[in-house]
Amino acid sequence: MAATIVNRRRGGRSRRTVVSRATKPVRHCETAVTETCLQLGSTLARKLLYIGGSCCPRPVPSPDAKADAVTDAPSPPPSTEAAGCPFHAGDEAAAHPPPHHLPDAGKTMVITGASRGIGHATVRRFSDAGWRIITCSRQPFNRQRCPWEEGPGDHVQVDLGDRRALQLAILDIKAKLRGGPLNALVNNAGISPKTESGKRMSSLVTPVDAWMNVLHVNFLAPMLLARGLFDELAAANGSVVNVTSIVGSRVHPFAGTAYATSKAALACLTREMAHDFAPHGIRVNAIAPGEIKTEILSPEAAARLEPTIPMRRIGTPEEVADVIYFLCSTSASYVTGTEIEINGGQHL
Ligand SMILES: NC(=O)c1ccc[n+]([C@@H]2O[C@H](COP(=O)([O-])OP(=O)(O)OC[C@H]3O[C@@H](n4cnc5c(N)ncnc54)[C@H](OP(=O)(O)O)[C@@H]3O)[C@@H](O)[C@H]2O)c1
């Protein structure tokens, strides 16, 4: 069987590891980012690298990868591969261990809206722990935004506002799972329409079409996905995380009525689903972010809101991703039906 060699450091000692190609060949992430930085210039490079720590999702083992396909052998000097990226020179963590050494190797997550913002950070957080990630969003997989190998094959292009398309997407996800269990479903995708002048869409002006679209994407799709993937989630004693919002429980200066209503409904749905799914071993929780630095939040809105937050700062997508990860981990094995606020005290 073909093999590739990676260099790792253990307790200051460099070792060479032979990894079987049963693990899918992976373009080293630092190399990928370096190439991308060169190609795209500083603006996009900043987007790729804005997350602290490891910048790229890790490789995931193919379903039939053998854990025993690794042998340790004495090694030559430390790898210069990690140092090839100027942002990671000397970063010990940049030398990724083989995938099956990661804590959650073999687990699979489906996440909606992974192409940017909170979803993107969540993909990175889970991937760093060894999860395989199946992503869903309207745009095709974007290699420039997401420089990891498994992406295109594990991406489902779907408009969650289209109920029929969603049913086909669920079949597509099942096909990608190949009868295997699903450990986590993260319903993250969300839309928050504004008026033409970019203002809050109040209950007096929200068109019916906007209501229907928001309710489909933000509320109905999470329920249809969870129900459609019920068997796979039950097979894994899996976990569902619905991304709600602080605006589900209070009027907000920028977020509109339909958006707020959809998030309040999603919080309620979380409670109902937690009750219904619990006897089948599936936990269902929600996280309610406050102001998080993503494209949904304009710089003007961020500047206006910052002083009103007790912690006096906007949150980062990584801080949200960490809580989602906690809820999907065994650390939260007795937590279901709850909604965790992530807002620097804004709800107080
Ligand atoms: N950022 C905040 O301050 C904040 C605060 C509270 C709650 N939230 C919630 O957190 C979640 C993520 O927010 P974010 O700020 O990270 O959002 P974002 O940056 O706007 O990203 C939204 C994601 O959802 C996908 N998406 C949008 N409409 C879709 C559709 N019809 N079908 C499929 N995918 C769709 C987008 O991908 P495509 O464009 O490729 O479809 C994108 O990946 C949302 O549910 C949002 O309501 C955010």
SSE order in H/E notation? EEHEEHEEHEHHEHEHHE
What's the CATH superfamily of the largest domain, by name?
NAD(P)-binding Rossmann-like Domain
The appropriate CATH architecture of the largest domain is 3-Layer(aba) Sandwich
Trace the largest sheet across and list its strands: 6-5-4-7-8-9-10
Give the overall average pLDDT: 78
Cα radius of gyration in angstroms: 21 Å
In total, the number of domains comes to 2
Strand content: 15-25%
N- to C-terminal separation?
59 Å
EC number: 1.1.1.100
GO molecular function: 3-oxoacyl-[acyl-carrier-protein] reductase (NADPH) activity
Family: Belongs to the short-chain dehydrogenases/reductases (SDR) family.
Keywords: Oxidoreductase
Task: Give an account of the 3D structure.
By secondary structure, the chain is α/β, with parallel strands linked by helices. It has two domains: 3-94, no CATH class; 102-342, NAD(P)-binding Rossmann-like Domain (Rossmann fold, 3-Layer(aba) Sandwich). The chain has eight helices and ten strands. It has helices spanning 29-49, 117-128, 163-177, 208-228, 230-235, 257-277, 299-305, 317-328, and strands spanning 3-10, 13-20, 70-74, 108-112, 132-137, 155-157, 184-187, 239-243, 283-289, 339-342. The strands form two sheets. It has a seven-stranded parallel beta sheet with strand order 6-5-4-7-8-9-10, sandwiched between helices. α2 packs across α8 and α4 packs parallel to α6. The longest helix is centred in the first third of the chain and has 21 residues, at 29-49. Residues 1-95 have low confidence and may be disordered. The structure holds NADP nicotinamide-adenine-dinucleotide phosphate. InterPro entries: NAD(P)-bd_dom_sf, Sc_DH/Rdtase_CS, SDR_fam. GO terms for molecular function: 3-oxoacyl-[acyl-carrier-protein] reductase (NADPH) activity.
